[in-house]
What does this fold into?
Amino acid sequence: MADVPFEVIREPAAMRAYAEDKRRDGMTIVVVPTMGFLHAGHLSLLREGRRRGDLLIMTLFVNPTQFGPNEDLDRYPRDEAGDLAKARECGVDIVFAPDASSMYGPLSQTSVSVSELSQPLCGAARPVHFAGVATVVTKLFHVTLPHVAVFGEKDFQQLTIIRRLVEDLDFGIEVVGMPIVRERDGLALSSRNAYLSQEQRAQAPALRRGLLAANAAFDAGERTALTLLAAAREPIEACTLGAIDYLELRDAETLEPIDTVDRPAVIATAVFFGKTRLIDNIVLGTLSVG
It folds into this structure.
């Protein structure tokens, strides 16, 4: 652990000056970007970040530019005091927790877009989302100056976009993807799980059951996308309270649709339970830990 006191920094200029100073000292900086309301999935990222560097920075910022006009920005769950306590327990050195006005000034007009990767899957239903993600991640990287950045694999599309962003813009940052952390019944941990009613929560693990059914068919030798997707769809469609937004099989690197699995491929899904939209995925031929 770095020999620095735990500290919360609010201003981007102060955060960058701090990071520049620590880089001059030869420290390896790791950043874990979050929107807060931390759960065990976030904590797994922080522990991995602690292992990988000398200075661990967690960003805590609910980014308004990645929310559409009818989405849940105003009611997105927040618990800064709890988040700071959990961050400290995980060995975080610095929490960068700006407000929106310091990240986006009144004259801001610049955005970053990863064009093709942002269009399918979640991008089809949330057209502004990934430009907001790419823009804020770019800003956070410029402010925290990390050598390593740690993200979860639950949002597979987001992770793919960030990897492309880092490569295309020559950031020179190692992007680490960490396995999905799940409840005992298989539901992927998410801050939005708090929105689910008791009945919706009981049905939500069907996402995982569907993905495992497709993976079992793949392991048994099935390679046709339509058949694999049908295996995944059956348990999910059995949910009387769920409505599939998408369920697709894509190339794991380019996110292009494929008809036959002859390369690394991911099945990704988004399902609405009322107004709550849950996502999950599995890379075929693998089983996520947790």
